[in-house]
Design a protein that fits this description.
Elements: H1 14-29, E1 35-42, E2 45-53, H2 54-69, H3 75-89, H4 92-98, H5 102-110, H6 115-142, H7 145-151
Antiparallel strand pairs: 1-2
Helix pairs in contact: 1-2, 2-3, 2-6, 3-6, 5-6
Amino acid sequence: MGGWNNKQADAITFPQILLGHYNKINQISLREFKVTEKILVIDGNKVIQESENVSKVYCQAVLQLSYILLPYFDKTVKEETKIHLPILQGFGYEIIEKIEDKDFKKRVDAAAEGTPKDDLIIMFQVRSAQKLFCALSLLLKRVDYLAKSVFGDTEVDDNVIDDEEDVE
């Protein structure tokens, strides 16, 4: 009888999930934070095949990373998430209430409803996501998780860079 063969070698480990997600966020951050569209033209008719807002994708990815790391939060990250999670999870009017920068808040309030205002709110969310991502990265550094996951030990000295031999 054919079925799923669930061998332990096929299992995905938590470090693989975490590092894969971390890598994906870094890949997303290399793209320009704007709406991208894949357009297909058939017989002279323009059809939008896919539309993606890279800013929203980045914010969602950082939010998801915070959910993955939730059991490992220390006091510092808990304080950061109290600030940033409501911004990343909130609706537009809730996010506007969280803006402390008076000049930026004036720009948001003065912006026309719809796309201009939404773009400013998303920009504010991206800033918050970047700060949260930095806090999560520092958490991984504090608990030495990246060294354990990547190198398999905790004896990694950040100040030492080994020379690599040229491979021909």
